Fold these 2 entries.
Entry 1:
Amino acid sequence: MSISDDERPKKAAAHELGCDLSLLSVDELSYRVQLLQDEIARLEEEKKKKSAGRLAAENLFRS
């Protein structure tokens, strides 16, 4: 019997946007800043890939 995606336990987010930060230590804040910077870099890289793919498709259909 397999477990569907809906039945699997959800991992807690390491950082939730807009959450209360007042109880976090400086180390925890630094960790979250790094985590978010890494995620921004990942998003920017994916954006570049998609933009390049879109440009290639546009150029193909312009010819």
Entry 2:
Amino acid sequence: MTLKTSSGKPTIPSRILIIKLRHHGDMLLVTPVVHALKERYPDAEIDVLLYEETRSMLSAYGEIHHIYAIDRRWKKQGVRFQISQEWQLLSQLRQKRYDLVLNLADQWRSAIITRFTGAPQRIGFAFPKRHHPLWRACHSELVSTDNHAGLHTVEQNLSILAPLGIDTRTAPATMAYTPDDWQFCQSLLAENAGSYVVVQPTSRWFFKCWREERMAEVIRALTDAGHHVVITSGPDEKERQMVDAILSSCQSDKTHTLAGRLTLRQLAALIDHASLFIGVDSVPMHMAAALRTPLIALFGPSKLTFWRPWQAKGEVIWAGDYGQLPDPDDIDTRTSERYLDLIPASVVIDAAKRLLHE
């Protein structure tokens, strides 16, 4: 599909908006779309609309011109305040007079925003659950999702560019950070700054985590081999308690914790300078893949086709290779079950040895 002016003449888009309203990892996996668009339209201004809490995933990415955000805390300040903020946002987007809007989201809100921009070209996905005249009316073109079940999330996102005829075969994921982010990490690392392994044992969903004793065994093997290990986690108290339990079993002057002390961009800087990343299916794992840091990714009952590390250097270790796992769609995310426990510690230790000596 060629973009056209009202007179029907072909034109190159100068203002493009991408809409994606999801979680942190989802936002990182939108960056290949931005890259592919910038390669095709180098002079275009590419904006992104996302949820405010995910802004840090893209805030240092130089190929994005401006980030607009929906703050889900608006509703806590009352309906009138929320309506005021959302109307202000809609007005800003309409005033930008976008040539092209790409709606990667599946919410009705995203479709209505897409239509409200007034852009002449508004491309979205033909999600089966949105088979409705209003969804079609909000878009000028819909891209089929019939083959999405066999595609990685990055490939699903990139498929929205098919009507534009853009080559997406080499579009990389990117996790950007600033020099200040790395400088802050260096101030905390001290003597470990030369060479270290990052271990991220936690996820906000604990069913994706490995037993603390297994992770401690891997860390002991690394420090016994002379490697410095930096343990990280999110700021949640449950995650920090998990790190404390691991540390109690692997005390060493070569083990250092930055659990809960880093922003996502600072964590990216830390991972980028690491010799190896070891972690579970979580946002930091996707960051490591995007940064091309050698990694070991531990997976349980997640949909590997969708969520395996994209363009990663390293190894994916799937618990399903060592025993029976439930269907990902049947998981109770509140369960205390540790499905990764099927993975022997020796398998991870051997993989770490291979990657650290490559």
